[in-house]
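Sample entry (292 residues):
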Amino acid sequence: MLKSANLALHPLKWAVLALLPLTLNNMSITPEEMEKLMKLFDQEDLDKIMEMLEVEDAEAIPEPSKSMSVDQYARSRQEQMLERMPVDEVDSEEVEDEEDSGSLDIIMYADSLEDDEEPEEESSSQYYTEDELESQMEILKELENSIGAGKKDGKWYPHKSVEGGNKTIAYGHKITDEERDSGVFDDGLTEEEAIELLKKDIDDANRKVRDKIKDFDSFPFYLKMELVNSAYRGLIQGSPNTLKLINQGDFEGAADEFTNNVPAYDDEDSGIRPRMDRVVDALRKYAKELDD
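Predicted structure, serialized as tokens:
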């Protein structure tokens, strides 16, 4: 059994360390071979070796394979000793003081056991994990501007909105009167700037829908995502009866009500129709899950 953590020995010295218990158990090694190996050590090293070993632990040492070289067996023995040694026995100062170029970095070995897990990447949104935010953004990119309207020479510029009124830029950002008057978007946006604007608009949509739906956080992600998509365009806020049914837990009724008396939805060529269908499908799916 190991009694010290001073393991910074050359591999050949490990060979002696490994073979010494075998010799004590009358394993086959000639005195000449042992004498040759022992010459690798000065008296101080030999004293340390004897302190590190107990003869009664020798039976736990495996026999070397006939195909192994002395160096291979020494390394094998070294690994097994490290496996049996508790990490908290490591004396980092002794390891650092060793001058042998072939020393074993015990500190690195011990540190590697502490925590192999990488920290999770934090989302830039207060409402999403990183993966959820990516999913939300990809859907809105497709719904809002899949054709790249207003994009020229790698930058996004204001373009006419299908709803009329102020222009839109990048991924569905409706330019406010203040933004229009200040000319903040006149020079265009890079893709990175457009993404940051999208994230801000997503958070704004989250706040709007959360203000209207009391148990929003208890909903599955797919339903929350579609409700936010709807709030992004102002649809769910414009249907108070749908919001009332959702808050009452009547998701099937809310699905029916959401498209009721919406002229734009009746137009099969309307871009708003597929967006509303996504919300209806999510509401019906959740209603079915609750019934099951």
